[in-house]
Amino acid sequence: MRIDQRMMVFLVFGIWVVVAAAVEDEGSPPPSPPPPSSRRPSVVNIGALLTVNSVIGRSVKPAIIAAVDDVNSNPSILEETHLNLFLHDTNCSGFIGTIEALQLMERNVVAAIGPQSSTIAHVISHVVNELHVPLLSFGATDPTLAALQYPYFLRTTQNDYYQMAAIANLIEYFEWKEVIAIFVDDDYGRNGISSLGDSLAKKRAKISYKAAFTPGASEADIGDVLTGVNLMESRVYVVHVNPDSGLRIFDIAKKLGMMTADYVWITTEWLPAVLDSSETPDPDTMGLLQGVVTLRQHTPNSDAKKRFASRWKGIKRKETSGFNSYALYAYDSVWLLAHALDAFLKTGSKITFSSDPKLQNTTGSELRLSALQTFNEGPQLLKALLSTNFTGLTGEFRFDQDKNLIHPAYDILNIGGTGLRTIGYWSNYSGLSISSPESLYGKPPNSSSSTKHLYSVIWPGETTVTPKGWVFPNNGKPLRIAVPYRHSYKEVVTKDVRSPQGVRGYSIDVFEAAVTLLPYPVPRKYILYGDGIRNPSYSNLVAAVAENKYDAAVGDVTIITNRTRIVDFTQPYMESGLVIVVPVKKSKTSPWAFLKPFTIEMWLVTGGFFLLVGFVVWILEHRLNHEFRGPPSQQIITIFWFSFSTMFFSHRENTVSTLGRLVLLLWLFVVLIINSSYTASLTSILTVQQLSSRIEGLDSLISSNEPIGVQDGSFAYNYLIQELNVAESRIRSLKDKMDYLNALHLGPKRGGVAAIVDELPYIELFMTYTKCEFKIVGREFTKSGWGFAFQRDSPLALDLSTAVLQLSENGELQRIHDKWLASSSCSSQVADVDVNSLSLSSFWGLFLICGIACFISLSIYFCRVLCQYRNFTPHEEEAHEIPEPESARRSARRTLRSTSFKDLIDFYDKKEAEIKEMLKRNRRQVNGDTVSPS
Fold this sequence. Notes:
Layout: H1 3-25, E1 43-50, H2 55-72, E2 82-89, H3 94-105, E3 112-113, H4 118-131, E4 135-137, E5 153-155, H5 160-173, E6 178-184, H6 187-202, E7 206-213, H7 219-230, E8 236-240, H8 243-255, E9 264-267, H9 270-276, H10 283-288, E10 293-297, H11 303-310, H12 312-316, H13 325-346, E11 353-355, E12 373-375, H14 378-387, E13 390-392, E14 395-397, E15 409-416, E16 419-427, E17 431-433, E18 479-484, E19 494-495, E20 503-504, H15 506-516, E21 524-529, H16 538-546, E22 552-558, H17 561-564, E23 567-569, E24 574-576, E25 578-585, H18 600-621, H19 632-645, H20 658-687, E26 690-691, H21 698-703, E27 708-711, H22 716-723, E28 731-734, H23 737-746, E29 755-759, H24 760-770, E30 774-777, E31 784-791, H25 795-809, H26 812-821, H27 844-879, H28 886-898, H29 900-909, H30 912-931
Parallel strand pairs: 1-2, 1-3, 3-4, 4-5, 6-7, 6-8, 8-9, 9-10, 18-21, 18-22, 27-28, 27-29
Antiparallel strand pairs: 10-15, 11-12, 13-14, 15-16, 16-17, 19-20, 22-31, 23-31, 24-31, 25-26, 25-29, 25-30
Helix pairs in contact: 1-3, 1-4, 2-13, 3-4, 5-6, 7-8, 8-9, 13-14, 15-25, 15-26, 18-19, 18-20, 18-27, 20-27, 27-30
């Protein structure tokens, strides 16, 4: 319980007791409760609390009276028991309302209908909690009244929690990010707007400013509030006020020119309550409200509601009056109590009251609190109320577990011309829809935003184009734009005292070109960030924007994950990524450079195979090819000549044997590969620059222990440490291009660095500056870009993203790039690694295939020769055989064995044609000798 409310209750108690004592002295004792009957009481006292002379009260009072009459005339409910209504006017005052509520409790009522004010409901709820009297409020929509603190408070209308959720969905539907709340500064206004802020936060939107004014504020006070909000950025206004004072806001807003195009006005249900209370719309009133979007509690168009509307004039007895949704809920509140009392009495329960011991006068005080009595059966009646379920004028009337009415729903209305037009509905079940909520309850819930749809809206200024919802504030404060005051790479962005803006560079030109494409002016002021001696920390710059020290940051701000968590970036206007730059050296020319393509082992094996193949071909061709015959010295020369002439495919000797051609074919293929490899390797050695560092890419950069240079203020410093786990001791911060140059020239052994890691645009400028003295190795190992940073949910970020895309499409972005960042062709070259001599390991497979072919060819050839030799030798010996003694024959066999190898060589040296002729002759001779003895 709040302290101020508790004190107010005790104060009111005292005043009430004094009033009660005065009444008692006049001889007018308070009415006593009706005596209970053995079965049912004939009369049950109920109360009603409302402000009679108000927009809501004028509609609710006749509705409550009509409901009591209808209940009492209906024999199917409460049978012989009748409701006795005591109506008290709270006069829209918390103090008077509390006194009226205490006087009402004095009449021993079992329940009270009302109050219509959330502020009064907060105070009275403490009274009914103590006296156990249920309070059925048809108008107190404050979400905090649903707390467990008020168990005897029952809201018989919709909770503002749902109304604010509906407005948040509406804000999301039209893609607005900020709203200004205009509200009355009481429990109803404050707590309702607080609920709106919570609902907007779920939609990534927010209340940028809360414009409050006191209840009953003068026109001058309201004018001051509206003048203040009109100077702010947001143009979406949510008005949450009382019905009796709300129209004055629009009257003043129209005078201030705030009901024109680009303004958005959204009101809560108070506005339809005002408009529905008049049968005929007032043209002057409707003229103030053109383009306003408002919400009204949704009630189905049932037959019961239509019958009630047709008899309303008779009930009201005023032709110019109408009923609003509060009247419907008040009517159903009486019927809710009637149904609950009927169920309560059918259980045989009686209605009794007793004095509360806590209210007894035990100290001799003059306050007579004992006049208030506790409703003994209050808990049972409260339970019956919560479990009652019936269908009334507002539809199905039933409470959920949080004591809220089920199926909360609202009509979304647009005011245009002389009437209200329904553009859609909102319900807690299906969200925004153009279908009535009751038609969707039987279908599965659909929370997808793609299915949400509303009819078109006519906004202030009679336009159907959805307003952006914001403008630049008309308060003389331009956009505060932080610009990094760089020490290096001033082509990107730097200070310029001669420029009206005070800054210049590639990023500034892109931003200025994008701003010119916006359909509205952007007053701006560039503020340098940094001292110009060192590059500023870009992470700190982004943090300053997030902390509202600046509205935006324009420059070479890289879009990385940590930064996107605290600010919004535009579309990247420059692609970027980290690359590695290392020093290179020119290859020194040498008279023996032609030997470098192959290692010594490769040269030796290649030369050996040239001789081997020449020798094998000579063996295979010697008996068949006259070009491979002659004196021994000539044949040796032929072997050498043929071997090395195959290197240039210029051998003049033809091969005639099948095996020789096979060996030569395979060898020529090997020679082709060797020649190609030699040519490519020699070209690389003589023409390509070589790295003077062992760093060839990202992997070798991480694995080495050599120092690495990064640009001062760049995110690369933290990236290397946190993402790549590079030791912090290895990283050196470098200020400008001269530091880059000196560090790479010195190298790691003389206090420099082995490589530099920086973003590609900077490296392109550096490469141009050094005329390709250094090279990029590896690939970009991050993919990001430069963008303009704005505070979270800034609408400028989205509009400028569109403008940047437009610059890219029309070629203006490339033109600006070429103006400031034109680079030489070397910037895109990737350096080749050191060219090593080709070793035997790269070619041993070819040599193995060639060697195997030679071996197989020689094996086949020698097998063939031996077969010829075996066929030739025996016949020759038989043809020249002379009878000799045994001893002479043994001596001749020893001589034959000792001279067989020489004979074989002599046999091989003969031409193939001679051998074949001798074999034919021997076969004929053998055949002749065989025939003669016979």
